[in-house]
User: Fold ORC1-type DNA replication protein from Desulfurococcus mucosus.
Amino acid sequence: MERDVRRIIEDELRRPTLFKNRESLAPEYVPDALPYRDEELRSLASYFRHLVTDPGSIAQRVLVTGGLGTGKTTLVRMFATGFTHVARERGVSLDYIHVNCYRSRTLFSIVHDAASQLGLTTPSRGFSPREIVDMILSFLEENDRYAIMVLDDFHYFASVVGRESVYFIARMHEAGDGSRRLNLVFISANTSTTGFFDPVTESYLDRHVVRLQPYSSSQLLGILRYRARLAFQDDAYDEEALEFIAEYEGVDKNGEGNARHALTTLLVAGDIAEREGARRLTVEHVRKAISRLSREIERVSDAIRYSPLHELLLLLSIVRLLRRRNVKGVEMGEVEEEYRLLCNTYGETPRRHTQLYEYVRNLRRLGIVDTTVKNVENRGRTTIISIPYGPLEELEKYLDALIWRKKDVEY
Ligand SMILES: Nc1ncnc2c1ncn2[C@@H]1O[C@H](COP(=O)(O)OP(=O)(O)O)[C@@H](O)[C@H]1O
Ligand SMILES: [Mg+2]
Assistant:
């Protein structure tokens, strides 16, 4: 081997790394403790105590609300896992079902997902949602089991389906034999009153609600300290860097109080520090991370994490075209062409026009793209697609990584 080549490789290998466990800053990571949420955990336990003291007495329904990154998903996961465990110790067979409404977008896929989490095999067509729910209820009844079913990011489902589907979910436990065995937790990001349930359900949920407040700077500092200890080597970061993020994000300092954003900022700052070959993560790295991260892209990344592969490919085509042309909006026809080229590079068979339109509609509902219709001379009407925020460079990187990850899972 060339001497220089070896020297560079060895240098790189010797270079100290700041991270000890980078994964522990990822949004998917489930921490083993959830500081500052004891009261909320207690409320949940009290709403569901009947499952242990008097199982089958009622079918509980609870609403958990709060802004993005206030810990809704983590809180409910932790509660349901822990509660299931405790109930089983006391002889109650309790199952925990977690349905993500960004992933399961229709009534059918929600109940189908719930059934398969219970281990029921239901064919993916040929049954109505009602029939599948009945199967779930009689399964619970026949086996003397109970379930807590969580509908995460339910506001998204409510915004894309009709009222009847929302009513159906809210009341699906009411018919049939096992009607008091299925308990529901709705998680919604809307902080004001939900407004999408029927009046009776609405007023019930109003009395059975857990509201998560945005985090203050000092709470965020506590969270950041805890996660930084897991993620970085000892002495690899300045305490001031954590303080800087906590103050930037804390609701008392006009931030959003979003823990996810705070943790992602720390992760990106760590990556920047590593790439620069720094020995410690400092405030300057945090400043760079903040300027690189756009809030909207953070929000978008949450919404598209579960999008189907081809919806992502279509979005990536939009992003690439917008960047290359450096324009505000691009025509649907051009996007489709770009998409077909992209499919080629990724080794995918392109989807048809009607399906692509459906993806665009969905991306618009998610607030990721905007569309307008324009009359074009001699060509009739055409749809113009735009992305009214930025920078798109980060979004493109994120999409590309997400697409490869999805392809890995598929094959
Ligand atoms: N009290 C807390 N302590 C530690 N980590 C937290 C806390 N609240 C939120 N987090 C972290 O912040 C991130 C966002 O939480 P999440 O539950 O996904 O929020 P939401 O569902 O409300 O958007 C996760 O990585 C989670 O681990
Ligand atoms: Mg969530």
